[in-house]
Amino acid sequence: MRPRTPIKPKRRWLPRWKMPWPFRRDPHALSGPPSTMWADSRQMEWGVVGKHNAPLRWSIAGLVLGILICLVAFAPASWLARTVDEATEGHLLLADTRGSIWSGSALLVLTGGRGSRDSSALPGRIEWNMGVSGTALALRLRQACCLNGEVLLLLRPGLGTASVSLPAGSQGWVARWPASWLSGLGTPWNTLQLGGSVRLSATNLKIDWAQGRWRQSGQLDLDFLNLSSRVSTVDPLGSYRFSVIGDSAGAGVSRMVLSTQEGALLLSGEGTFSAGKARFLGEANAAPDREAALNNLLNIIGRRQGARSVISIG
């Protein structure tokens, strides 16, 4: 007898709504080729991994944010010193810094620039405190030897821009330094060895920075009071004013003026300051009957042309 061939059972096709979930298609999904079990399993795997990684991502983001806040809140004062050094090309330094950029102190040092051996520090430390005031940063400066009480500067940083201004209540003279401090700038100041004092005054002063250029509004005055020099027997030489007058036309050009207030040494000159470059032309003369006593000084100040000495910058 021949063996009976087993009869294969008929395969039953279930409607999709009765099929197990991984093989069921969303009736509202967009039309397209049916997804396979392999594709569905990958979607399930990535969904599970994403859910498990979400807390980790938030933890990392919180850690990074916390580090950034700490860096800003506790940034050392040496960061501010580095900024001042770069902005002045090494001519003004904050030495022996203490504290943070928000509250700290340092010694103010003038130098002849990077690589120069000349330097001169002011007596006493300059102290600062910085905080938020409206849309600006309020920088308060104190220095017993040289500042007129507490000096307030308003700093307004922006995207590619910045501004520094003196509020209306801070007008008048701001600082007063011994003229001997200028010897730190090198030649010719270290040769002149000036005596007397230098007083800084400001009127409606505001300095804006944008696109790599500075623009000044208001006026800045440097008064050289009762100057003397070791290369001259005339004491005092006189008193002088050097003014930087801001641009009122919006062209970004400030005007510089040097004038004599009184004295045996007569100084005068004019120039401009624009795009970080200064151009100045002035001259020095001796008052009548003082030519012999001021001859050596006139040779050092500038280029001699007869009885006068020409001062040229830029």
Automatic annotation (TrEMBL):
Signal peptide feature range: none
Record-linked InterPro entries: T2SS_protein-GspN
Parts of the chain that traverse the membrane: 60-81
Main location: membrane
One Pfam family cited in the UniProt record for this chain: T2SSN
Listed GO CC annotations: plasma membrane; type II protein secretion system complex
Keywords assigned by UniProt, alphabetized: Cell inner membrane, Cell membrane, Membrane, Protein transport, Transmembrane, Transmembrane helix, Transport
Family (UniProt): Belongs to the GSP N family.
Entry protein name: Type II secretion system protein N
